[in-house]
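Lecture notes, continued. The same structure-token format from the folding unit now serves as the input rather than the output. Read the line below as a description of shape only.
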């Protein structure tokens, strides 16, 4: 059993929630047992359907994983009240792009969601799934930008009111990081217009959460991709009231019988 000393707790408490998440996730790479101090394991709710709850302490789990030589790189991180959401690069035998979301209570992480996708090649505009702007600004516009993206998700992604697309997305200089798309509003419009067997190739059915800090907004949704139930995490950068940049991950949701916890993906 790992023994913790009070000064370690004090050091954790002094960190910002963003830095706590960075320490926690870096612990996957380093095996640092102190990384587990970020989490209140007695309250921790795990929403990754592939991960069991309660059968092994995080400190021991990180120690085991670190022996496989994983690499963890935090690209950008944001804070929204009690939530921290981060855009990550993982190398666990293969490269993956991921979003991590943590909810904090009394200074400790008590709930976790994530979404991962195998790293795609750069798209034909030369964008990767992780490059692009990392500068958080316009903090005074956080709620305005949250509302803008919320309306975009409901009007465009869910309701398919594509005639409103230019109300939300920059027409000339929209930057696209999805590996299958290219820069510009026309490619986005085309991807949302595709119909296969009388159904959209990609269909958003429900938005579960919108998180925001300044000019960055993350929407967490579910729907279908080629008929498969998936979770969609979409990160948007908003400038002067329009969406200027987009990143995403799409992950299939396993059948209920395959879940290793009972908390649900969302």
């Amino acid at each position: 059993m790992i023994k913790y000393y009070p000064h370690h707790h004090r050091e954790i408490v002094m960190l910002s929630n963003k830095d706590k998440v960075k320490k926690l996730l870096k612990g996957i790479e380093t095996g640092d047992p102190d990384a587990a101090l970020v989490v209140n394991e007695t309250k921790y709710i795990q929403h990754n359907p592939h991960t069991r709850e309660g059968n092994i302490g995080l400190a021991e789990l990180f120690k085991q994983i670190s022996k496989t030589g994983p690499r963890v790189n935090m690209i950008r991180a944001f804070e929204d009240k009690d939530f921290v959401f981060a855009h990550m690069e993982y190398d666990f035998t293969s490269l993956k792009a991921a979003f991590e979301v943590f909810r904090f209570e009394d200074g400790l992480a008590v709930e976790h969601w994530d979404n991962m996708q195998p790293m795609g090649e750069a798209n034909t505009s030369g964008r990767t799934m992780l490059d692009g702007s990392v500068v958080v600004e316009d903090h005074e516009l956080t709620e305005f930008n949250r509302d803008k993206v919320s309306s975009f998700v409901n009007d465009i992604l869910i309701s398919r009111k594509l005639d409103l697309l230019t109300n939300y997305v920059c027409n000339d200089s929209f930057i696209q990081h999805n590996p299958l798309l290219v820069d510009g509003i026309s490619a986005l419009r085309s991807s949302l217009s595709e119909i296969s067997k009388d159904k959209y190739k990609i269909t958003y059915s429900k938005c579960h959460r919108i998180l925001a800090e300044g000019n960055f907004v993350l929407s967490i949704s579910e729907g279908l991709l080629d008929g498969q139930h998936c979770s969609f995490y979409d990160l948007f950068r908003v400038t002067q009231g329009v969406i200027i940049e987009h990143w995403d991950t799409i992950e299939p949701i396993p059948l209920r019988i395959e879940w290793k916890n009972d908390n649900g993906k969302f």
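Point for the exam: The first strand starts at residue 45 and ends at 46.
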